[in-house]
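STRUCTURE:
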């Protein structure tokens, strides 16, 4: 069984960046911050071999990610950072959290590809099939031209561009 979990932890920086948030936005921001703190603590505990110290039921994000953080899975963390100097501390904290997931003792089972790897494989196969259908539709002389030395074809194209200029 494959499982793909996506979680956006954006919003923790909004409290400091904006002085006047609506009560709903403030609550969302505080919840996001609490989730990030809980995730960070869980990653640290798991990295040190102490999964019993994690309050899985106390946080919705941890409940969602429990199977991804423990067990026979592949985990990919995508960290997005702000180029803003005023958010440098948030970006650094994001990088530290993402980097700390490298220490998780995950052991994907052989023969059971991760959902992400499987999805990428299928997308690549569809793309290859699409390209093959385009190549099949090309005239034979065009295929023969590209089947030769790739560096020669590049030199010919560069020469033609130079002659045109």
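SEQUENCE:
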């Amino acid at each position: 069984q494959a499982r793909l979990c996506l979680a956006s932890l954006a919003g923790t920086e909004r409290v400091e960046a904006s002085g006047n948030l609506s009560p709903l936005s403030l609550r969302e921001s505080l919840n996001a911050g609490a989730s990030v703190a809980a995730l960070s603590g869980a990653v640290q505990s798991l990295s040190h071999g102490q999964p019993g110290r994690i309050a899985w039921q106390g946080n919705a994000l941890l409940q969602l990610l429990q199977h991804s953080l423990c067990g026979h899975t592949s985990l990919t963390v995508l960290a997005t950072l702000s180029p803003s100097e005023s958010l440098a501390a948030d970006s650094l904290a994001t990088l530290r959290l993402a980097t700390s997931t490298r220490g998780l003792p995950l052991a994907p089972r052989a023969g059971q590809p991760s959902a992400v790897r499987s999805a990428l494989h299928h997308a690549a196969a569809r793309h290859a099939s699409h390209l093959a259908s385009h190549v099949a539709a090309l005239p034979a002389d065009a295929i023969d031209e590209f089947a030769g030395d790739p560096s020669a074809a590049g030199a010919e194209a560069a020469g033609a561009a130079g002659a045109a200029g």
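REMARK: Residues 148-165 have pLDDT under 50 and may be disordered.
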